[in-house]
């Protein structure tokens, strides 16, 4: 897949002591596209939008996604928004983001159709599927 995935998201601050996630006020955009340097990898960037009301500065994230070494999972325990964790399996590094496109106002943690499509697109990029795994899945489905 050679398309670029782009969507609005903010960063989330995680406090290990209280085990609480706090969305930062800054609005931003996540972009995932094939890496120019490494054709099998993907460049992940989170860039803050120019938002004078949020105050302060937030550093941009520039990460290299290696399929098979990263996961993108919905944090279901967060009920005040749609928060996702980008986790690197080899290092354990974790980055948290909250989706900023308008969702269900009554249920802030409910994923929208657009959210589900974003997750599906990202999973397709970061999951390694070889022919052997696909055959195993077909065999399991028959049983």
Can you give a write-up of this model?
The chain has 143 residues and is an alpha+beta fold. The protein has a single domain, classed as Proteasomal ubiquitin receptor Rpn13/ADRM1 (PH-domain like, Roll), CATH 2.30.29.70. It has two helices and eight strands. A hairpin with a 7-residue loop joins strand 3 and strand 4.
Please summarize what this structure is.
It is found in: Cytoplasm; Nucleus. This protein has a single domain (5-142), classed as PH-domain like. Helix content is 18%, strand content 36%.
**Total number of distinct structural domains:** 1
**What top-tier CATH class fits best?**
Mainly Beta
Q: Give the name of the CATH superfamily.
A: Proteasomal ubiquitin receptor Rpn13/ADRM1
Which consecutive residue ranges, at least 5 long each, have pLDDT under 50? none
CATH architecture: Roll
Arithmetic mean of pLDDT: 83
* Structural shape: globular
CATH-derived topology? PH-domain like
SS-based class: alpha+beta
* Number of H/I helices: 2
Q: Profile the largest sheet.
A: 8 strands, antiparallel
InterPro entries: Rpn13/ADRM1 (IPR006773), Rpn13/ADRM1_Pru (IPR044868), Rpn13/ADRM1_Pru_sf (IPR038633)
GO molecular function: endopeptidase activator activity; proteasome binding; ubiquitin binding
Pfam family, one: Rpn13_ADRM1_Pru
Keywords: Cytoplasm, Nucleus, Proteasome
């Amino acid at each position: 897949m050679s398309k670029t995935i782009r969507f609005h998201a903010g960063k989330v601050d995680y406090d290990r002591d209280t085990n609480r996630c706090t969305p930062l006020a800054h609005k931003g955009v996540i972009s995932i596209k094939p890496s120019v340097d490494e054709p099998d990898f993907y460049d992940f960037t989170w860039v803050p939008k120019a938002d004078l009301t949020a105050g302060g500065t937030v550093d941009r994230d520039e990460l290299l996604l290696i399929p098979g070494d990263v996961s993108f999972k919905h944090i279901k325990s967060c009920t005040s928004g749609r928060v996702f964790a980008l986790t690197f399996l080899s290092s354990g590094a974790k980055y948290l983001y909250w989706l900023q496109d308008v969702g269900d106002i009554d249920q802030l943690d409910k994923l929208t159709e657009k959210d589900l499509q974003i997750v599906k697109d990202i999973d397709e990029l970061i999951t390694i599927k070889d022919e052997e795994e696909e055959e195993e899945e077909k065999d399991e489905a028959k049983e």
